[in-house]
Specification:
- α6 runs antiparallel to α8 (195-205), α8 (195-205) crosses α10 and α10 packs antiparallel against α11 (245-256).
- The protein is α+β, with helices and mostly antiparallel strands.
- It folds into 2 domains: 9-111, DNA Polymerase III, subunit A, domain 2 (DNA Polymerase III, Chain A, domain 2, Roll); 125-256, no CATH class.
- It has a 9-stranded antiparallel β-sheet with strand order 8-7-6-1-4-3-2-5-9.
- The protein has helices spanning 18-31, 76-80, 125-129, 131-134, 137-143, 146-167, 174-184, 195-205, 208-214, 217-238, 245-256; strands at residues 9-17, 39-45, 48-53, 56-65, 68-73, 87-93, 97-100, 103-106, 108-111.
- It contains 11 helices and 9 strands.
Length: 259
């Protein structure tokens, strides 16, 4: 993406009619209340601004240049549903702020186009899990769905744990059940263990800034505290036999890095 040397703004700017924008946004706000996505995207195609929340889209006639996709919190649409005036300028700055008239929102910028997700409103768990098979993490992030997919994977892991627990009197079916689910969702992040491991792997695989952007920093921090508490409890249980803290810490670290 090139920048204007004088303003340090991205070469991305559109002009739309304010009434057209508010009329287009209102149905999306109503229809997307139960959407799996918590973000909205702004793209440009065939002379139209395209505003989308997980498959629910509306178009607004626009003029200008917009060579990518801007992603903003879905809550921003509620503010745009009441814009007034005649002409609104839409632009995105080098600091990744989306400006629409006098309003400004935090945004992410994705260069180029995105493959549609084709995700229905209030989708079943298996539809969300299959998103990883068709879309990269970068695309899911741009669509505002990466956090939803991570939460779905955590929910799937809990469902598997519940099934394993129900079958425990008949034997240990953990490995077999995880194998069945992995075959159904080969790209899903479903470690063979409690969803606590998933949360810990978030910390391993992402920086604090990335986790904060995804809204997952608190989850990862809580998981670390839970891990330390469990290790302390295990060490205490083994105390009559010796000090096994280092060894248990290594076991946990090895399991965390297994996948």
């Amino acid at each position: 993406m090139t920048f204007d040397d004088a303003t340090q703004e991205r070469k991305a700017h559109l002009t739309v009619n304010a009434s057209d924008l508010s009329d287009a946004v209102r149905p999306i706000v109503r229809a997307s209340r139960r959407s799996a996505a918590n973000e909205a995207t702004f793209s440009f195609a065939n002379g139209d601004l395209v505003i989308e929340v997980a498959g629910v889209a509306a178009t607004v006639p626009a003029t200008g240049v917009w060579p990518g996709v801007a992603t903003v919190p879905k809550s921003a649409l509620g503010m745009l549903a009441n814009v007034s005036g005649r002409v609104l300028e839409i632009r995105i700055t080098a600091e990744n702020r989306l400006h629409i008239g006098g309003m400004s929102f935090d945004a992410r910028w994705h260069e180029g186009t995105l493959t549609p997700t084709d995700l229905p409103i209030d989708p079943p768990l298996n539809d969300v899990l299959r998103l990883r098979q068709a879309h990269s993490d970068e695309a899911l992030l741009a669509h505002g769905l990466l956090e939803r997919v991570a939460l779905a994977e955590a929910e799937a892991a809990r469902s598997i744990e519940n099934a394993v627990d129900q079958l425990k009197p008949l034997g240990d079916f953990r490995a077999a059940i995880f194998k069945l689910v992995r075959e159904a969702f080969p790209q899903a992040d479903l470690p063979a263990g409690h969803s606590l491991l998933q949360a810990l792997r978030l910390r391993r695989d992402h920086s604090d800034a990335e986790l904060r952007t995804l809204g997952l920093l608190d989850r990862a921090t809580t998981a670390e505290a839970d891990r330390d508490r469990r290790i302390d409890s295990a060490v205490h249980s083994l105390k009559p036999l010796g000090d096994f803290r280092t060894a248990i810490g290594m076991l946990v670290r090895d399991e965390l890095n297994r996948h």
